[in-house]
UniProtKB/TrEMBL annotation:
<dbReference type="Pfam" id="PF08352">
    <property type="entry name" value="oligo_HPY"/>
</dbReference>
<keyword id="KW-0067">ATP-binding</keyword>
<dbReference type="InterPro" id="IPR013563">
    <property type="entry name" value="Oligopep_ABC_C"/>
</dbReference>
<dbReference type="GO" id="GO:0005524">
    <property type="term" value="F:ATP binding"/>
</dbReference>
<dbReference type="InterPro" id="IPR003439">
    <property type="entry name" value="ABC_transporter-like_ATP-bd"/>
</dbReference>
<dbReference type="InterPro" id="IPR003593">
    <property type="entry name" value="AAA+_ATPase"/>
</dbReference>
<keyword id="KW-0547">Nucleotide-binding</keyword>
<keyword id="KW-0813">Transport</keyword>
<feature type="domain" description="ABC transporter">
    <location>
        <begin position="2"/>
        <end position="236"/>
    </location>
</feature>
<protein>
    <submittedName>
        <fullName>Oligopeptide/dipeptide transporter, C-terminal region</fullName>
    </submittedName>
</protein>
<dbReference type="InterPro" id="IPR027417">
    <property type="entry name" value="P-loop_NTPase"/>
</dbReference>
<dbReference type="GO" id="GO:0015833">
    <property type="term" value="P:peptide transport"/>
</dbReference>
<dbReference type="Pfam" id="PF00005">
    <property type="entry name" value="ABC_tran"/>
</dbReference>
<dbReference type="GO" id="GO:0016887">
    <property type="term" value="F:ATP hydrolysis activity"/>
</dbReference>
Length: 303
């Protein structure tokens, strides 16, 4: 359904072009939920925005059902199918109109189904009184849940969720995960989240990013139980409920000119990591690590 090929992208600023994404290869199948994990500033949101077609593309392509979205006609069709929901999404919510009015407008007044709205609100732990309020009077957390609820109600073909779990309590996260599983029948979803636990509960596949590059991708269970890149291994070990709960893990943003972007933090690095690292495949499991499987086989010695 969606294929990103060798994508390079970034921001045009008054100081010139800032390249953020490098050589991104990514795909999303129909009825699939894909997660993007990575440290702060690794380029997750930039990738979502590039996928939506918001950013300047300096190389590569984005294909929607096999056609480049950079053709004007395809772009128009594509944009109607994609919803991008983030916490400060005022592209979905208009600050001055009641939530109820905006939902009715979304459905078209004749098709408004209060039971359906209630069901989605219940899942997200949103009181029905929220309907009578205007967004500017709602708390950030409530507004965030309203944005998610409305993006789910639209039933888009592709839903891009940026940090959907932020500010939600356990009940609301569980409700949201249930809803996402339900809407998967008609919506394909990409989720960016710094909270990786819900992603491993819901996603079919996961991509891991650092410094604007994808360092690993694969089926969620492959990534969780057999990471091929030490960066991903460290992210997983930093999850408190998983093994090795005492290990501390702090993210740093180390720019390097050549070689692996995780070289300065990696306990398994050697001289070979300073050379150019190509993306390799182990069946469907992709990774950008020259030391796999050696580091993986040696990992217990390091503890
Ligand atoms: N509008 C912009 N103009 C210039 N640079 C930007 C812009 N937005 C983001 N960046 C830069 O792009 C890089 C990637 O940021 P991005 O927000 O995509 O990362 P992220 O992985 O989503 O991080 P976070 O978890 O903090 O949201 C950062 O270095 C950031 O400073």
């Amino acid at each position: 359904m969606l294929t990103v090929k060798n994508l390079g992208s970034g921001y045009k600023t008054t100081d010139g072009y800032i390249k953020i994404l490098n050589d991104i290869n990514f795909y999303l199948n129909k009825n699939e939920i894909v997660g993007i994990i990575g440290e702060i500033g690794s380029g997750k949101t930039t990738l979502l925005r590039a996928i939506r077609g918001d950013l300047y593309i300096d190389s590569g392509d984005i294909l929607y059902n096999g056609e480049s979205i950079f053709s004007r006609e395809v772009y128009k069709r594509y944009r109607e199918k994609v919803i991008y929901a983030r916490q400060d999404s005022l592209n979905i919510l208009k600050p001055g109109y009641s939530v109820d009015f905006q939902i009715k407008k979304l459905f078209g007044h004749g098709k408004y189904d209060l039971n359906y709205v209630k069901r989605i609100f219940d899942y997200l732990d949103l009181p029905m009184e929220t309907l009578n309020n205007i967004p500017s009077r709602l708390s950030d957390g409530t507004r965030h849940r309203v944005v998610i609820a409305m993006s789910l109600m639209i039933r888009p073909e592709i839903l891009l969720l940026d940090e959907p779990f932020t500010g939600l309590d356990i009940d609301a996260i569980t409700g949201l995960l249930k809803l996402l599983k339900e809407i998967k029948d008609y919506t394909s979803i990409i989720i960016v989240s710094s909270d990786v636990v819900p992603l491993f509960r819901i996603c079919d596949r996961i991509y891991a990013m650092r410094n604007g590059m994808i360092l690993e991708d694969g089926k969620w269970s492959e990534i969780l139980y057999k990471p091929h890149h030490p960066y991903v291994y460290d992210i997983i070990n930093a999850i408190p409920s998983f093994e090795n709960r005492n290990r501390e893990f702090t993210f740093t943003n180390n720019m390097v000119n050549n070689g692996c972007v995780y070289i300065k933090r990696c306990r398994f690095m050697n001289e070979s990591c300073k050379s150019e690292i190509l993306y390799r495949y182990d069946n469907d499991h992709g990774y950008r690590c020259i030391r796999y499987p050696d580091w993986y086989n040696d990992r217990d010695k390091e503890r």
